């Protein structure tokens, strides 16, 4: 699935990944390929990303929103 993680200042990640874990308002949740459409608020925490080579990357965010639609994940983070 295609993932973009952007802040007002810069783009943190843009590319393909197999999994993304996000700090939701009610706790952590994961998104995998073919996930149902979703819009959710995010709280401060770490975003965990597993790329197509099974390498994990982590990004600190201070909150934001995520949109999932047609295997595209857009994270607008602070």
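-> sequence recovered:
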């Amino acid at each position: 699935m295609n993932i973009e993680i952007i802040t007002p200042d810069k783009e943190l990640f843009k590319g393909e990944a197999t999994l993304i874990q996000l700090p939701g308002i009610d706790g952590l949740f994961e998104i995998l390929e073919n996930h149902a459409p979703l819009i959710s608020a995010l709280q401060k925490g770490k975003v965990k990303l597993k790329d197509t080579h099974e390498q994990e990357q982590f990004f600190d965010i201070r909150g934001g929103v995520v949109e999932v639609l047609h295997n595209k994940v857009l994270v607008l983070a602070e």
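The CA atoms of residues 64 and 77 lie 4 Å apart.
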